[in-house]
Amino acid sequence: MAAARTLRNALAHLPSEVAVEALAEEFPWIELLPPADRPQFVSDFVNAARISADLGQWSVLAQTIREWKATAAVYTDPALVHELTAPLSDDHGPVPGPREA
């Protein structure tokens, strides 16, 4: 846990560009993310590492990495990026409320 906290602290105090560069060595798919999103990945990584170290549950960090990797994969398909970022033009009706358990 001490190593994880040390890593978290080091990343949290680095300039954003340097932290992105450091993490890109381990996670090369970061380069697929738009430059404006890369600092958010670093922030999410640092927060998840802090939570994981505190709880001793590394699934939190693993989930964060999985989600960002999936986001990076979306950016490899320009048609999908367009579809997901285009404004909605259709009204799909009212959203149903939550079901009672």
Task: Please tell me about this protein's structure.
Helix content is 64%, strand content 0%. With 101 residues, it is mostly helical. The protein has one domain.
Keyphrases for this structure?
mainly alpha, 101 residues, 64% helix
What topology emerges from the helices and strands here?
Layout: H1 2-13, H2 16-26, H3 38-55, H4 59-74, H5 78-85
Helix pairs in contact: 1-3, 2-3, 3-4
The biggest beta sheet, please? none
Please indicate the count of domains: 1
Separation, N- and C-terminal Cα atoms: 39 Å
**Residue share in helices?**
55-70%
What's the quaternary structure here? single chain
Number of helices: 5
* Strand runs, count: 0
Supply Rg.
17 Å
Runs with pLDDT <50, length 5+?
none
Shape: flat
Instruction: Please write the string of helix (H) and strand (E) elements.
Output: HHHHH
Mean pLDDT: 88
How much of the residues is beta strand, in percent? Answer: under 5%
Assign the structural class, choosing from mainly alpha, mainly beta, alpha/beta, alpha+beta, or little secondary structure: mainly alpha
Concise structural overview:
The chain has helices at 2-13, 16-26, 38-55, 59-74, 78-85. It is mainly alpha-helical. It has one domain (2-85).
